[in-house]
Amino acid sequence: MSNQKDRIKLLLSAISTEQLVQPLSINLDKIASLFLPDTDEEKARQIIAEFLLDYTLRTPDILFNIKEIAEGLGISQAVAGALDFATVFLDDTLAKKLPITDIEDPPLLLLTLLQACYLVNRIIEEIDDKIESFVGLPLGPLNLMYANIIVHEVIGDRFANRLDSNLTEVIKLSVITRGLLEANLSNAELEKKRANGLSLSGQNVTCLAKDHGLSLV
């Protein structure tokens, strides 16, 4: 996890703030109108740029934490296949982008990193959704839905839709439900967490996008 994060930091260090917001030029108006309707364009651009940096930098931590939560609950086998796929994809993307001695197209670099992080976070979002549909609670404490909607707009439909259409091949509902059943989770404990609005991990659920003031509500 730390190795992934260090490599992402290294890659992002080669991108200036001006270069960071370049990929947003086409999608900014739509994103701002949905998530920042009362914010002027320059401020909206800055907020979204900061969000994209945080989204990218936090992805290795999010992936690591969800693995730790699954292991602690005894359901690692239920999600291991999907999370291993996400880990390998992120590692391969980072490996192909190093060394960074000659980055000719920083916006393309950012777009590539966002695509990899989007894949990881969409997998985690889908795992949370499937577990919540079965036990009434998401696995992890971080709601990624709005964050992924925003990044979907940035990276474009071509990549995002292709990924979304293939998620069922990566995440098997039958494997997840079997793993949850085999874990023999306490019904009383599940009910207590549901009543308190907690995740399966026992933590309060927060929204990554809302942490940056980005919300559809």
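Above is the first protein from milestone M3; the second protein from the same milestone is given next.
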Amino acid sequence: MSYALLSLMALAACHPACARAWALVGYLDGRGDLSADAAEHAAGMLRLPGPGQAHVAVSGPRGLVWSRENGRVTRRPNAALQSSRPSEQALSEFLEWVGPRTQGCNRVICLLGHGVPAAAGRGAGPPRLLHGDGDPGLTPDQLAECLGRHLGSEQDATTVVVLETCFGASADALYALRKVADFMLVAPGEIPSPGLSWPETAEAVMALASGQRTTTLSDSLTPGGEQRWSRPWPVVWASPRSFETVADALERFCSEAARSPEAYAASLLRLRASTSATPERREMVELARLARAVGNQQAGTLLFDRGEALAAAVEQTVISYAVLGPAGPDVSAGRPGITVYLPGALGCGYADVGSWSSLARRTGYDRFVEFYVQYCGRLVPGLGPTA
């Protein structure tokens, strides 16, 4: 949820580029069941302390753009935000307007909206942000192109992107935004209400950025042991700038994995079976766990080494993480991290991964997924492609 904005501005103050002024840019999807959340978050963004400017767009029936500059708050209606125009167009128009106003500033960019993971079967397609009824939303590649076109990348300026959408911690998202964002705050799974606690989140991430954190991130975000959520959920603070290293490691991993599929097929199937049974979560697995499951000792020394190298590269991208909420059986062991598409028993549609994932095309992961469905599908009825 957009409560994460304060923490990001706190972290930004500790960055070497903190001599620049900061601008907060928020695009909040206020349609449907998010209308109340969007209004609340917009009000919170405009109350942020300090001299920095804030520009917040709220889409929906009362589409408005709020701005705070020089201590003064103004608002203006926006026809594009009020219409049924797709999010990609409305976001593009808002960023075109806000880009010149924040030129020369460090930026915190927040997107609040529904998110869906990559899917196979009849609904085959990429992960999407700001997704809604009748609105396809944006793929990670589309979001990166939109941000780069309107906001650019200035030398010595810091850009923080908060994806306040479910399933935002995908490898595709970090790879797509690697040239746009210095830091990202994302969630691998669903984001439950009411979101993060304030001002504890700001204090926790400021301490994390300055290396002065004395408690776990989870404890910092739940002061006094307060249980704000009915179920556990992970949050990840990551550096997409380093994801080129992950892509290189994934390419070497996929190349070696193609040589001996029979050596790790059973391990891959066990990993797939260990994930949640819900259709959405079944489509995504943590990339580091995938690397170690495939690159096991029985698969050979070289594949083992490349699996370990890939897992290490992914884990180095994750600066910090926490599993919030009550402990439960669905909290996986180890650190929550970046997820990657791996279809469950959903039949055809897998081949589309190469058409929508620039990461899969760059690394050969699309061929790895194709092998998984075809080879492992012969071992497990119902997994392979259907007519």
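Note on the second protein: Residues 291 and 307 are 5 Å apart (CA to CA).
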